[in-house]
Every structure is written in structure tokens, then in C-alpha cells.
Amino acid sequence: MRQFIRHPSDIPIEYSFANARAHEKEHLKNVSEGGLRFFASVRLEIGSAIRINIPVCEPAFQATGVVVWCRPQGDHYDVGVEFEDATTEFSVRMVEQVCHIEHYKKQVLEKEGRRLSGEEAAAEWISKYAKDFPR
What we know:
alpha+beta; Thrombin, subunit H; 2 domains; 6-stranded antiparallel β-barrel; 2 helices; 7 strands; disordered N terminus
């Protein structure tokens, strides 16, 4: 049984290793209080310290973690990162909401043909679903 609820997402993510200046851009697959999952184009070493940046909100979500698994999936790798710092919980909740809003924005476009701005999507999502969002 999972310790944390995972929230699906497909938003952009940037990562770098603790001792590197360059960063890679990928897409987040899901996020929870304990960590996140994303696809990488290269194999990442289990146990590596990693910096995560999710630039979809201001200020951008930033956290450090450790690669806890890396599994080949066709032409890419499925990567799991566990957060190092327990104080990231509040920030993770904000990222979870952003993920839900971005997912809602795409759903509305696909199902209804409406193109929402970030603000419009946030306002609609909050009015419909925020009361059900775990605190």
C-alpha cells in the first residue's frame, strides 16, 4: 500500500544533479508528498542526489531528492525521486494543485474545445474541485 497519494501530471520538469550546472527538461508523470515520477531520456544512477525545478508557477517549485529507482521503458527511462526534505510538503501541495489545474485545462480543450488561460482554468478548477482536494 502506498504511503502517499499520487497525483497524475504531464507538466514540464527540469532536473540536474547536485554538482552540475546544466539541466535536462522532461515531463512529470505524477507527484506526491513523498516524491515524484518522470520520464528521462537517459538512465539515472540510483542513489544520485538530484535537484528538481518545476517552472509552471511563480515562484517555481524547487526541491532536492534522491533517485530511488530508474526503469527502462522503451526508448526512455521511468524515474522515481524521493524528496530529501520534509519541509517540501506545503510546496508539493501547491504543485499538486497546479498539476490538477494543468490536467483540467487539457481535458477541457480535448472534451469541450475550449482553450482556457491558466487563470481561467485555475478559477474553474478551484470552484469545482478544491473543496475535495486533500489538505
